[in-house]
Specification:
Elements lengths: L23 H6 L3 E3 L8 E3 L5 E3 L9 H7 L5 H13 L4 H9 L11 H9 L5 H13 L13 H7 L7 H11 L4 H10 L13 H10 L15 H8 L6
Antiparallel strand pairs: 1-2, 2-3
Helix pairs in contact: 3-4, 3-9, 4-6, 4-9, 4-10, 5-6, 6-8, 6-9
Length: 243
């Protein structure tokens, strides 16, 4: 397949199998979508039932859990399931944390979300966790049978059978592949979910202690601490302010 690096082909088979991956439209239909409106109203949450509600106000000193509860509505179920899979597979806590937050930046932007996500979390997480967040988005296009990662069937639908990743993704893949933390970034792709259950309920209690140990929550609140990525958290907290 064009654009897909054939790595570690001498090891175990990486067959896509017979499991049916849902169409992208099926997934999107079950995930809330957001729309913006300037003026009297703030950013609105448009649920699948067509009900439109104002976005809840953030507390003065928001924590990561506040963002999960009040802003990460589109990605939290996916991320919770990914972290749960990593936890039960025996991944270490830095990787579980990376899985827990790896796609949350997509509440802000989709393009190059690995780079954006790493930038948003770098001031608050271990360097290895930030590395895993940064490079998972590139590694997902390249199978690694030794690690147990196959090219997702969903990507053939989303990007096309002949999709070739752009040069900066290829360069990122090659850099990460030779890095000592490659396994951490690869683990995020292995524990990512390309056919997830939108109705699944994951208990977040097991992640609370992991976040407490490895996430540097600023006492001023995310967005108020003048970190290099504070502006990203402020934008998520108040996306419609004309400032």
């Amino acid at each position: 397949m064009a654009g897909v690096a054939q790595t570690d082909t001498n090891s175990q088979s990486c067959s896509p199998g017979t499991k049916r991956f849902p169409a992208v439209a099926e997934i999107e239909a079950q995930v809330p979508t957001r729309s913006f409106r300037r003026g009297a109203g703030s950013l609105l949450l448009n649920t699948t039932g067509g009900k439109v509600e104002p976005l809840a106000k953030m507390p003065p000193r928001p924590t990561l859990w506040d963002f999960f509860e009040l802003r990460f509505m589109m990605t939290r179920n996916h991320c919770f399931q990914s972290a749960n899979k990593a936890l039960h597979s025996g991944a270490d806590e830095e990787i579980v944390l990376a899985c827990l937050v790896h796609d949350t930046v997509q509440e802000l932007i989709h393009t190059d979300h690995g780079f954006w996500g790493a930038q948003m979390y770098e001031p608050y997480v271990p360097p290895r966790t930030a590395f895993a967040i940064r490079y998972h988005a590139a590694l997902r296009f390249y199978p690694d049978t030794r690690a147990g990662y196959c090219y997702p069937n969903e990507y053939r639908e989303m990007f096309g059978i002949d999709y070739v990743p752009p040069p900066h993704i290829e360069a990122s893949y090659r850099f990460a592949r030779s890095h000592r933390w490659y396994g951490a970034a690869r683990a995020v792709t292995v524990n990512d979910l390309y056919s997830f259950d939108p109705k699944a309920v994951v208990q977040v209690d097991p992640f609370a202690e992991i976040v407490a140990r490895h996430f540097k929550q600023p006492p001023e609140g995310l967005g108020n601490d003048n970190s290099a990525s504070a502006h990203m958290w402020r934008t998520l907290a108040n996306p419609d302010l004309p400032l």
